[in-house]
């Protein structure tokens, strides 16, 4: 590392990728001569490098200027809250940042709050990936205040952040009024229930350029699934992938999702595995996709019995239809001013 750093010292690099190395703090400082000589970096990648809090502070200390930095990736490190404070200092100085990834870095609420505050200075952000951290509701709400300023945002990855309904609603409301060209929205694994789905559905309805939606591993159930399906029902001509797997969805929700997405001109894949759809419901979904079964993901982990009593599901089709109409009415007056 010292040899490589000394050879490259003084080179005017645009991109520096040191990913997949056993850096730690000593490794980062071994690249000190190289890092200190860079004033025009546009991309810095430090993924899977064992970046601890001490190493993160070393990175912040050694890079003299990030005014031109557009890409900053810190995926899969052991940074934690203290390290997130150091990363946030880099972000604060990176006003031109367009692509920020700080996923799987063991960042909790305090670190999430620091990153959210720093991101307020990144008005040109296009891609934000914070997946697989422990932000919690408080950091999620704080992040929503930063996201409300991102008019250029096209991809946002907020899965597995422990957002729950409150954090999800705050972020959905912020995204609804920003990011008009949003293409990718991922909020899987956040304990979102049907209660938090209305705001999320309103946000989704306003994103006509959406190509991919991932809400897997939540608790939306039929009510939430139908609200989301209705939000996607109008236009959304560029939509090509929806993941609603593992959401305790039953027959009505699965059928309604299928009926909506199958009509999209460029649609490619619907994931609804790991739900509680009855055998009859599975047959209905397959019939809807008849002639294009390659657009339907695997259903081998679907549990027709579900986790609780299925009597309500099996009583009769009329009850399901009435329930569906009631849910659909919740979005009938939804109008989004583009």
Description of the structure:
By secondary structure, this protein is of the alpha/beta class. Helix 11 (251-261) links the parallel strand 9 and strand 10. Mean pLDDT is 91; it is low at 309-317. The chain contains 14 helices and ten strands. The protein has a ten-stranded parallel beta sheet with strand order 1-2-3-4-5-6-7-8-9-10, with no helix packed on it.
Strand fraction: 5-15%
Instruction: Report the uncertain regions.
Output: 309-317
Number of helices: 14
Give the rounded overall mean pLDDT.
91
Number of strands: 10
**Cα-to-Cα separation, first versus last residue:** 52 Å
The radius of gyration over CA amounts to 22 Å
The coarse overall form would be elongated
Outline the biggest β-sheet: 10 strands, parallel
**Helix and strand run:** HEHHEHEHEHEHEHEHEHEHEHHH
Please list the strands of the largest sheet in the order they lie side by side.
1-2-3-4-5-6-7-8-9-10
Structural class, judged by helices and strands?
A: alpha/beta
Query: Approximately how much helix is present in the residues?
Result: 40-55%
Summarize the helices and strands and which ones pair or pack.
Layout: H1 2-8, E1 15-17, H2 24-30, H3 32-36, E2 43-45, H4 53-62, E3 71-73, H5 80-92, E4 99-101, H6 109-119, E5 127-129, H7 136-147, E6 155-157, H8 164-176, E7 184-186, H9 197-205, E8 212-214, H10 221-233, E9 241-243, H11 251-261, E10 269-271, H12 279-288, H13 311-314, H14 317-328
Parallel strand pairs: 1-2, 2-3, 3-4, 4-5, 5-6, 6-7, 7-8, 8-9, 9-10
Helix pairs in contact: 2-4, 4-5, 5-6, 6-7, 7-8, 8-9, 9-10, 10-11, 11-12
């Amino acid at each position: 590392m010292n040899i490589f750093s000394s050879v490259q010292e003084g080179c005017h690099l645009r991109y520096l990728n040191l990913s997949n190395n056993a850096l730690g703090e000593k490794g980062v400082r071994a690249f000190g001569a190289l890092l200190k000589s860079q004033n025009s970096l546009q991309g810095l990648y430090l993924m899977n490098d064992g970046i601890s809090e001490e190493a993160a502070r070393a990175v912040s200390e050694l890079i003299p200027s990030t005014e031109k930095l557009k890409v900053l990736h810190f995926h899969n490190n052991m940074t934690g809250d203290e390290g997130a404070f150091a990363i946030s200092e880099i972000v604060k100085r990176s006003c031109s940042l367009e692509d920020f990834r700080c996923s799987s870095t063991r960042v909790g609420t305090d670190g999430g709050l620091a990153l959210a505050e720093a991101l307020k200075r990144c008005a040109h952000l296009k891609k934000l990936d914070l997946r697989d951290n422990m932000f919690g509701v408080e950091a999620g709400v704080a992040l929503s205040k930063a996201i409300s300023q991102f008019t250029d945002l096209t991809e946002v990855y907020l899965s597995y952040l422990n957002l729950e309904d409150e954090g999800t609603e705050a972020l959905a409301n912020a995204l609804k009024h920003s990011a008009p060209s949003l293409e990718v929205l991922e909020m899987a694994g956040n304990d979102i229930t049907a209660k938090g789905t209305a705001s999320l559905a309103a946000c989704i309805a306003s994103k006509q350029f959406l190509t991919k939606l991932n809400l897997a591993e939540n608790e939306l159930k039929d009510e939430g699934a139908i609200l989301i399906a209705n939000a996607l029902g109008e236009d959304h001509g560029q939509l090509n992938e929806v993941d609603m797997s593992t959401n305790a969805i039953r027959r009505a929700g699965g059928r309604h999702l299928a009926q909506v997405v199958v009509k999209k001109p460029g649609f490619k894949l619907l994931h609804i595995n790991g739900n509680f759809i009855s055998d009859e419901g599975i047959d209905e979904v397959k019939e809807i996709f008849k002639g294009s079964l390659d657009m339907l993901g695997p259903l081998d982990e679907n549990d027709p019995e579900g986790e609780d009593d299925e009597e309500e599901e099996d009583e009769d089709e009329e009850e399901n239809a009435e329930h569906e109409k009631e849910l659909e009415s919740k979005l009938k007056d939804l109008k989004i001013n583009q």
